[in-house]
Amino acid sequence: MGVNWKHLIKRLADRGAEYADVRYVPKEENDTLFMWNGNLIAFDRSEERGYGVRVLVDGAWGFAASSSDEEAEAVFDRAFDNAAAASKRSRRPIRLADKDIVKARFESPCGIDPFEVPLLERVAVMKDIDSALQHKDVPQRVVSINTTRKTIRYFDSEGAEIEKYIIEIFPAIQVGAFDSEGVMQQRGYRPPRLGPTRGWEVMNKEHWKRESDRVLSELFEVIAAPVCPSERCSVILMPDMMFLQVHETIGHALELDRILGYELSYAGGSFVRLDDFGKLQYGSEKLNVRADATLVNSPGSFGFDDDGVAAKNRMLIENGILTGAITSRQMVMEANDRAGREIFPDSGGTSRACAFYRVPIERMTNINVDPGEDGTLEDIIKDTERGVILSGERSWSIGSTREQFHFATDIGWLVEDGEKKGALRNCTYEGMTLDFYRSLSKVGDESTWEVQYVDNCGKGAPSQEMQLGHGVPVCRFDNVKVGE
Ligand SMILES: [Zn+2]
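Above: inputs. Below: predicted complex with zinc ion.
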């Protein structure tokens, strides 16, 4: 016997709730396979089911969650009572922006369901990749594959009924070896989302052989390379570094709950103020950034958010000017109210919870930089007098309001007089967020654009890990501090 969710929501409305929704997860499965130097040292499988109820009473939220169907009525009542108790202490009544009411289903595009591939076969594929990475001078090899499969059913008191069926796969490789000074250098690879589907088909043998060979040869380049010079010059960020730059200094900075002061953990604040929308010059005229949850194949595309709002494609930065944010129904109302003007017409559809027992908060979808008109990577190199091409995120450190940053990369290559020269190791670069984006001088075309992903973005207290994407081209920034 299933629970009648719609009936339980109606009961809350009858008790006087202004709004209520339930997210029911009949099944969520996660497999984590981790191979180290050819040995499968971790195989974690988790499975969970349950539901979370959110209720708005007298302008305040209440939440409760459980895995027990038997106690569903009591859990709904507890969420109501929590809201009623919270409303006695709330200073600003919560209101929700209007939305279109949908009854719909979303399914992530998937060729071969990874959970249907026998475990031994999955391990054999990892073994194959591991063999391609083997070398006597490489003491560390990692091959990992994380997969998720889940169904989420959503109902709310406004009449929305949504089902989502999502399959995700996150494979990665990394190798490490010591340089002449005894420092461990690394090179890794996670496949960008270029194909139309996400499923076991991404484990294509030839693809991984080719990428494994490249990763290994670039590791040998970097351990033999001179140290990155310390100077100011151009930096050309490859997509596998540009995505992290965008993630940390545009994505997180533009989450509206941070801007309003609600999210302060994990380098939580934002330097952006409500006054800035429509006028802050975030970057050069070449910078166009959007939150696009409609991309066909990305973990940041999920059909409908956990407020029941359909996926949107919204500009955040247009020709360098800040125009939008990462928004939910609740935060746009408060922001417009506090600003005394309508900055945001409606929700951007970015409200997501990582599990049934967490409340939805504003999360990045696909925070993308539009491709530009400065040609291919080769064209950009040809036009660069002196610079460094940087690839592969190695470490990062961010100012507490995202106003500055310092990143290290796996590898770099020197560019002199329009030519790509040898590799560099210990590459780092740093800057002030706005100065950096204002120095954006080249944006690569479609041929350089890739959808990279983040499978472990942390936010919130209690913490919520989320998956999302970044479609980014190769970009060049000028007069940037590189090296120590
Ligand atoms: Zn993050």
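The mean pLDDT is 96.
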